[in-house]
Design a protein that fits this description.
Oligomer: single chain
Shape: elongated
Structural class: alpha+beta
Number of strands: 39
Number of helices: 23
């Protein structure tokens, strides 16, 4: 029975581009005519039915999903990535200890690196030098700050040789010098200070913090120092303190004069910023920093009112993980209210929260009696390394040093005597060098018993989560990764966008069933386990941005375990009784029949220019997505060579038995789809061919065959493309996209696609029950579609009476 054609998206587009004439009736438009016409196109040009018929001749089996085995396999893969970075950062730490010198001249500054010594590298998305390190020297670093000798550079080079997918390796010192590898050109000198970056602070103070910053905005803050007002210097200091925080921390800001002010955002639930401490996510930090920019000076200096309001934050915020609590109080003048009132308010409010808050005060300027600020600080204590430390007062006679002094508050809590051997893993953040979302593994470095800085190495979220992202054996089974706080690192419903600030959302936002709470609580304790219950699946109807979702209830088993050596947990969700379709091993391709898409490395026998693109004449080419490889990060990090292409070709044609890093079944997918090339080649002389741009077929393992053969982008993954997801979501139908511009030719095209099922010897398919193994598609010039529309529906040609 012929299945329906999905037309909603394209018809909505047509209504905009080709209006219906006045007085026309919708009954004059019979959609079955268009269905019949485009079904003919698909059958004659794309050959989707014949491709499916060929798959039905191939031996497919069902393989049940074994939860514990799959969990251990994926966990081992994750663990290997983490362990490799742990080894790297320990090597860096040891190299710092060996090469740390107070007398070395060090490397050159990154801002002075000569451009001609650098070469562009795709792993770092910029020109770099793999033979040198360079330094980012803070403008506040001491002139005689200690530097690293060559042992650190040599360790970086050796690490990269052992782990080719490594990203930045670096060491940030207590004196404000960051030595980074590979060397690259920095846009400016002096602007980067590692000591005020969240990765550095979190390594020295891994325990979460609850920070309230109190900012004096009285009229005296209008006075200037070297052309800068005190209030502008204070704003910079407060914003730098906020920059040191990570999403495990919580914070609030109070500004005061005669009246106390807190941030009240003009956003949904924005009032909570003035009522309770906010999680220090990038989004919240940005909002509060924008509020700080708008603070204007004026009025008196009522300390007690500011203290009372600051402690309300602690009243309404639970000390969830026994966080360190600190109140940073900055003022440039004597208080308007009395000493007894101030000290009584501080004592009473701190007693109300079990004296859990340590106060650190900062007196800005000179000629002022700061004894009140001093007494405020010394009346409070905090437990650090099993001993009580008294709060500190800092007199800042040089106002330009306010930023450095306030932003160094965390040193009060730093655990400096204990040598840590297990790295700290940061939460995801946006790389300042343009590599997208990262997490960092870092270790404090001690020399002669003294903390001298932090060694670190980065890994992109894209690399880290490859296995979890690619694990989607069926529509109803998937995996996700969370950290020890229950925050999502990766989930099918919450994919990270690599070039945008990360969002931090609890797993319960996506796993909404009540019985999941016991699962997430177990992961927070670092446990392993499994549990079976009915859970909800949220499934796309195609490209979910356009077509929405549907929900189904499925009996599922959750399997979870902590990834060895980390505080992350991996969770597999498998539909009970679920299985995947597996193609049995096929005979390799005949010699000379395989063409890899890198035509510039190994060109085909005959070339042509198709759609303004170098192409193979009468031959398809195969591209393989990162998910097609056993080690996806290795494939993405190493530039393909002629030898690599030839090795893959020999393997595909059975001339080599050694598998070139490909996942199980990828070669069989290539062999199974070779029939498509033969079918497409047979239509080269058809009249319709001149309106066709590309024909292609893809499989769930990332194999992509395109005709005529052409080069695809390195990161092209057919499985996540709209044409593929739409076809799989509407498995029993042909799917058509709205018009869009072809990337190469800039000509408007539409895509028609159809899902492919596992082969069945009887040729009878049950779309609801059969397993999907891929999809096939064809790009057609949109103007041809317009012509066919006018021919099928003459009413569309009545342009005289268009609205």
């Amino acid at each position: 029975m012929r299945k329906g054609l999905i037309l909603t998206a394209v018809l909505s587009c047509l209504i905009l581009e080709w209006p219906v004439a006045k007085g026309s009736r919708l009954s004059e438009i019979d959609p079955t005519l268009l269905e019949t016409d485009f079904t003919t196109i698909l059958d004659s040009s794309l050959k989707s039915n014949e491709i499916q018929n060929h798959l039905d001749t191939l031996p497919y089996n069902r393989r049940g999903l074994q939860g514990n085995a799959l969990l251990n396999l994926l966990s081992s893969s994750f663990s290997a990535k983490f362990q490799s970075r742990i080894s790297v950062v320990k090597n860096l730490r040891d190299a710092v200890v060996t090469s740390y010198s107070e007398f070395s001249s060090g490397a050159g500054q990154c801002c002075n690196v000569a451009g001609q010594t650098l070469e562009y590298d795709s792993r770092f998305k910029q020109p770099v030098s793999f033979s040198e390190v360079c330094e980012l020297v803070s403008s506040s670093a001491a002139y005689d700050a200690a530097r690293l000798e060559h042992a650190f550079r040599d360790a970086c080079i050796e690490n990269l040789r052992n782990v080719p997918s490594l990203k930045w390796q670096y060491f940030g010192s207590e004196q404000g010098v960051t030595t980074t590898f590979p060397a690259t050109k920095a846009s400016s000198c002096g602007s980067y200070d590692n000591r005020f970056r969240s990765w550095y602070v979190q390594t020295n103070v891994p325990k979460p913090k609850q920070v309230v910053i109190v900012l004096d905005k009285s009229g005296s803050m209008r006075q200037t120092y070297n052309g800068m007002t005190y209030i502008s210097l204070a704003k910079t200091a407060v914003k730098t303190v906020i920059d040191t925080l990570n999403p495990f921390d919580m914070f609030g800001v109070v500004s005061f004069s005669d009246v106390v002010f807190t941030f009240n955002a003009d956003i949904p639930n924005g009032a909570c910023f003035s009522e309770q401490l906010a999680q220090a996510t990038p989004q919240n930090k940005r909002l509060v920093k924008a509020y700080i920019d708008g603070v204007q000076p004026g009025g008196g200096t009522f300390y007690s009112r500011a203290l009372d309001r600051a402690f309300k934050y602690y009243d309404t915020t639970w000390q969830r993980f026994l966080e360190d609590r600190v109140l940073l109080f900055m003022s440039d003048g004597a208080p308007t209210d009395s000493y007894p009132t101030i000290m009584e308010t501080l004592s009473r409010r701190n007693n109300a929260v079990n004296n859990s808050v340590v106060v650190m005060t900062y007196g800005l300027g000179s000629g002022i009696d700061f004894s009140v600020l001093r007494d405020m600080a010394t009346s409070t204590t905090a437990e650090v390394e099993s001993s009580l430390k008294i709060g500190t007062f800092t007199h800042i006679s040089n106002p330009s040093q306010l930023r450095n002094e306030m932003a160094s508050y965390y040193n009060f809590f730093a655990t400096r005597s204990e040598i840590v051997d297990e790295p700290i893993w940061t939460v995801p953040y946006l790389d300042s060098w343009g590599l997208g979302l990262m997490i960092t593994a870092s270790l404090p470095v001690h020399v002669d018993g003294q903390l001298v800085g932090v060694a670190a190495v980065d890994i992109t979220i894209e690399e880290l989560l490859a296995e979890s992202s690619y694990f989607k054996p069926t529509e109803l089974s998937y995996s996700f990764v969370i950290n020890h706080k229950g925050l999502v690192i990766n989930h099918p419903l919450f994919p990270y966008i690599s070039d945008r600030e990360p969002l931090f959302v609890e797993a319960t936002a996506f796993e909404r069933d009540q019985k999941f709470l016991s699962v997430i609580n177990s992961t927070k304790r670092g446990e392993s386990g499994s549990k079976t219950f009915v859970s909800t699946r949220i499934l796309p109807q195609g490209d979910s941005k356009k077509y929405g979702i549907r929900t189904v209830r499925v009996m599922s088993t959750y399997h979870w375990k902590q990834i060895p050596g980390t505080r992350f947990s991996l969770c597999l969700v498998l539909a009970n009784g679920d299985s995947e379709a597996v193609l049995q091993p096929l005979t390799p391709l005949p010699s000379g029949s395989f063409l890899f898409h890198d035509l510039d490395l190994v060109p085909p026998p005959e070339t042509c220019h198709h759609a303004n693109t170098l192409s193979a004449r009468s031959k398809s080419a195969v591209a393989l997505a990162a998910r097609s490889f056993q080690d996806a990060e290795l494939y993405m990090s190493e530039k393909m060579t002629v030898n690599d292409v030839q090795t893959i070709a020999r393997y595909m044609e059975g001339q080599a038995t050694s598998n070139p890093n490909l996942r199980e079944g990828v070669r069989d997918s290539v062999v199974a789809t070779y029939k498509a090339e033969e079918l497409w080649r047979s239509t080269d002389n058809d009249n319709l061919t001149r309106h066709v741009f590309w024909r292609y077929v893809a499989t769930n393992d990332g194999m992509f065959r395109i005709y005529p053969g052409t080069k695809m982008p390195l990161k092209y993954d057919p499985v996540v493309r709209c044409w593929y997801t739409n076809a799989q979501a509407n498995r029993e139908k042909y799917v058509i996209t709205p018009p869009y511009r072809d990337a190469a030719s800039r000509i408007s095209v539409i895509t028609l696609s159809k899902a492919l099922f596992e082969g069945r010897s009887d040729g009878f398919h049950e779309p609801i029950r059969d397993k999907l193994i891929g999809a096939t598609g064809v790009d057609i010039v949109a103007s041809y579609f317009h012509e066919r529309l006018l021919q099928i529906y003459p009413i569309c040609a009545r342009t005289a009476n268009y609205k």
